Amino acid sequence: MSIAAKTGPAPTALRTVKPSRKKRRTGWNILGVLVAAVMAFPVYWMIITALRPSQEILSYHQKLYPSSVTLAQFKRAMNMPNFWDNVKSSVIISVCSVVIAIGIGLLAAYAIGRFRFWGRRGLMITLLVVQLIPATSMLIPIYIQLNKAGGLNEYWGVIAVYSATTLPFAVWMLRGFIVNIPRELEESAMVDGCSQMTAFRRVVLPLLAPGLVAASIYALMTAWNEYLFAYVLLQDNDKYTLSIWLLNFNTTRGTDYGALMAGSILIALPVVIFFLFVQRKVASGLTAGAVKG
Predict the structure, then answer these.
(1) Which of 267, 270, 264 minimizes the C-alpha distance to 50?
(2) What are residue 255's phi and psi, to 5 degrees?
(3) Would you say 61 and 80 are in contact if contact means Cβ atoms under 8 Å apart?
């Protein structure tokens, strides 16, 4: 018997796509490219505006590309008052908020996803309802409570607000990852002598890495880009975050669009770099095949 007879039809024959289906797929691909181009155009315009000379930014005859490239807008943005102080404030507030929200959210999600206790369903519904409440409706109560606790114009006050804001979403997201991790893996580890906490640390935590990264990205973006609470709860210029620092480019003489776009790029870069650094972790799918022998 020949090899062809043993292996059946050639693989290329199985991959043959009907012309109508191929045509429909091409149409969807073109539509996807158009949607991506529309979504990417504001980012492109922000970048080229930051790289244009000042006289070209204010010209009535705008082109899709700069006639010359300059970094003067970035230098002017970085020389604005309190830039580095505001960078420090954003880093402190964002990192602390992410660590607290993910740390508490991980324990809460594990308890909700693994154990059955009274009020579990009510707790989950409460977390969901809290997430749906508009932030502006909570601004005055939070301001009054922080004022009584001495948290106004303090880093810890804003960190507490950001952590509480992102915690419900982190719990729901991490719970979804935890329930998809088979219990048999933990039970096997405990049969081998591990305690509940050791099994959680050695088995569940590594498999939960994509969920932790995804929740961390959400918490970081929320804390890094938030404007309203930081503007109301912080009062000193050197304690403001970078999202408030952008107001320096809007003066009584007009808006410095070039420096504003350069400052926006500088603010977006840390989040973009962090996402590029961890995006492989998000897509790796560490749980795939975890129960296979």
Answers:
(1) 264
(2) -105, 130
(3) no
67 vs 54: CA distance, rounded Å: 12
Amino acid residing at 205: L
* Tokens coding 289: 């095949």
Amino acid identity for residue 226 in this structure: E
Rounded CA gap, 224 and 267, in Å?
8
For residue 283, what pLDDT is reported?
A: 59
Q: What is the pLDDT of residue 284?
A: 56
* Nearby residues of 228 by Cβ (< 8 Å), 6 or more positions away: 135, 136, 139
Residue-level pLDDT at 14: 53
* Separation of alpha carbons 265 and 247, rounded Å: 15
Q: Burial code of 75-85, b = ≥16 C-beta within 10 A, e = fewer?
A: ebbeeeebbee
Instruction: Give the burial class of 259: count Cβ atoms within 10 A of its Cβ; 0-12 exposed, 13-18 middle, 19 or more buried.
Output: buried
With a cut of 50, list the residues of the chain below it in pLDDT.
1-8, 13, 285-293
- Interatomic CA distance for residues 281 and 274, integer angstroms: 11
pLDDT of residue 3: 44
Q: 0.85 cut: is pTM over it?
A: no
CA Rg value for the chain = 26
Cα 9 to Cα 2, 5, 6, 205: the distances in Å are 12, 8, 9, 44
